[in-house]
Design goal:
Blueprint lengths: L1 H15 L3 H29 L5 H22 L6 H22 L4 H10 L20
Helix pairs in contact: 3-4
Length: about 140
């Protein structure tokens, strides 16, 4: 009986095991699927960055989070800590710097603005350039 079970086990192993070419083909197919998915995601990212760069998007998300924290204090009737207000000031200056960078020749926002200005059905005038002047001057 033991020999019979061993023979059945060996026969089962032999039926499940494939040759190297089969395994290489499976690996190749899976790598191709991964490559296609990665290519698709990379394409989506490149298309999205034609409007707003990842650097700008992440900074604005951070600034918005700091802003929400200030409101969280105020909502509870507490004054926001000075270090938090200083961070909001830093974010304000940094946003201005990033916007200037994006609106200069060759910047993402400059390219989009020029493209938008060409649309005759615009409700707003996109041909004018943004100016960044310090407040109070």
């Amino acid at each position: 009986m033991t020999e019979d079970l061993k023979a059945k086990a060996e026969a089962l192993k032999a039926s499940v095991v494939h040759d190297e070419v089969t395994y290489l083909k499976r690996i190749s197919d899976r790598l191709e699927k991964i490559e296609n998915a990665l290519s698709m995601v990379t394409n989506y990212m490149a298309n999205a960055e034609q409007e707003v760069s990842e650097k700008m998007r992440r900074f604005i998300m951070y600034m918005h989070d700091v802003h929400d924290i200030v409101y969280m204090y105020e909502e509870r009737g507490l004054p926001p800590p000075n270090y938090l207000m200083r961070e909001m000031e830093r974010c304000d200056d940094r946003l201005r710097q990033l916007l200037q960078e994006e609106h200069t020749d060759g910047g993402t926002f400059e390219k989009v603005r020029r493209e938008m200005a060409a649309d005759p059905e615009n409700k707003w005038d996109h041909s004018r350039e943004l100016t960044f002047k310090p407040q109070g001057l």
